[in-house]
């Protein structure tokens, strides 16, 4: 676990991820406070949903860096072989990595939240909703992590998850046509801290939490099973 | 050397003069200079981190030196009219993207110089990769990757070959192949410059020796001159670079 | 040189995988959303990846060293890559733009103006080149993709009325700027 934390800390892309996570929501909130746009009870909370980009990068990079063969100096070796000879138990390796990712994501969420909420004057600070933000960020990081473990390459999960964080997300559009898409992890999870707006299906924060937890568990279990069975 | 630029006498000559390279505060090269001549195999020897690769990378225009010149045929590498037909370079690894096939890799290099695609099979045959040409580079062994790098260097049948640690990753058979091959190249009048930290493996292959240590040339001359009174090149080397 | 760069692009399996998925997702989304054209708003992500791959794939397996020893004139080499990329992207972008229009016509029965097809094609090509330029600068596919997609999908919707908006007009300014910076940096730095 300590080893995994130091691996994360030595990747410059992780620092980029951290910067994105903290800066995107704070800067957007700050800009919006000038433009008087997006005012309302959800001020700050909505912006925090974009900062989740950062933890997506974090989750993806934590895994893809193990498989990377790219870079100005890379000779084609993959770090994963070193990692697995250092920690032969794959389950422990994966668990330690997931724990490191979750910890960093939660930490980033708290920092970003402090920054954003201090700027989003007028927005009510509710403890349960703030806890929801931390939970959402951590879960999203773990989802990105799990999917990247499955595909062993960072680009696909990164693109899909990042594109879906955009202002008008794909799952949001799909949930308009097919209500079942309201139960995708991002849609359901966001209910933990954002009021539902013109949604076809009403999901309570608790149900949102349970739905997203379910997704995370399923993805991580599949990732663990696949990871322990296949050749590195 | 600038005044003799373009003269036929410089064909195939590598001239390195007063190279200085700093990275941050550390000086990697402090005034490196030597020549490699046609018809001879020049061994560029030194311990790990002595500045061999940096010198060759500057010679090939990959890195930039703060001072000094590195010329092929009297001109900097980047000004060569037809680099692929002039200099063949083998640097570390395969130099190929892992998801391309060996043949596809050679194809783009051939196209970059307008070489006939028939050369691809010729060089694959030459380095003993004829059967592996349609395999992905990612599936190659270390030695096969090195052979592909050599095949790439030979595509344009250049009069000058520059090789960085060509024996790395090769099995005994591969080492023997490279040695005889490089000797043949030199005997047919071409220039061969190779770097290595393996003295014993090279003594029988090289004509001229340049020894570098901590960014400085500490000895240069024919094999006999550098070996001098020592029993072998290896002993001479350790006497020269002992710290 | 352009033929060499084109040969590189075409022999990379990732190029075809990216293009295939982009087109497939685009067609699927056009059907689902059924408002035509707007599917490109998502499938442009595939083109960002294509552009980033074109420049960043040089840094796998030390291929950049081979590239620069056989094509030592770096500005020419990278320009040739840009041109090869455009040659590959324009037909693909045209297919994506047309597929959107054709499906929309079939579903909604409305007619699209040829001008729109041209605009979508131009936009997608600019996005691809932006991916390539940023890729050449940061030399890591993931980082390049994250930066460009982050910009196109998260930043641009929030700064719509400024010079940073991601429409054809602003991209027509920013993309050449980044292409130029990438050329400049590529020429100066150690490979």
Strand-helix topology:
The complex is a heterotrimer of chains A (232), B (243) and C (191).
Chain A: H1 2-9, H2 12-35, H3 45-67, H4 79-86, H5 90-119, H6 127-151, H7 155-164, H8 170-177, H9 185-190, H10 205-229
Helix pairs in contact in A: 1-5, 2-3, 2-5, 3-5, 3-6, 3-7, 5-6, 6-7, 6-10
Chain B: E1 14-23, E2 26-36, E3 41-45, H1 52-59, E4 67-72, E5 75-76, H2 83-86, E6 87-90, H3 102-112, H4 118-127, H5 142-154, E7 160-164, H6 172-187, E8 191-196, H7 199-202, E9 208-213, E10 216-222, H8 223-227, H9 233-241
Parallel strand pairs in B: 3-8, 3-9, 6-7, 7-8
Antiparallel strand pairs in B: 1-2, 1-4, 4-5, 9-10
Helix pairs in contact in B: 3-4, 4-5
Chain C: H1 2-10, H2 13-33, H3 40-56, H4 63-70, H5 74-108, H6 114-138, H7 141-158, H8 168-188
Helix pairs in contact in C: 1-5, 2-3, 2-5, 3-5, 3-6, 3-7, 5-6, 5-8, 6-7, 6-8
Give an overview in words.
- The complex is a heterotrimer of chains A (about 230), B (about 240) and C (about 190).
- Chain A has one domain.
- Chain A is built from 10 helices and no strands.
- Chain A is mostly helical.
- Chain A is globular.
- With about 240 residues, chain B is of the alpha/beta class.
- Chain B has one domain: P-loop containing nucleotide triphosphate hydrolases (Rossmann fold).
- Chain B contains 9 helices and 10 strands.
- In chain B, a hairpin with a 2-residue loop joins strand 4 and strand 5.
- In chain B, helix 3 crosses helix 4 and helix 4 crosses helix 5.
- Chain C starts with a helix and ends with a helix.
- The model of chain C has no long low-confidence stretch (mean pLDDT about 85).
- Chain C is mainly α.
- Chain C has one domain.
- Classes of the chains: A mainly alpha (about 230), B alpha/beta (about 240), C mainly alpha (about 190).
- At the B-C interface, helix 3 of B face helix 1 and helix 4 of C.
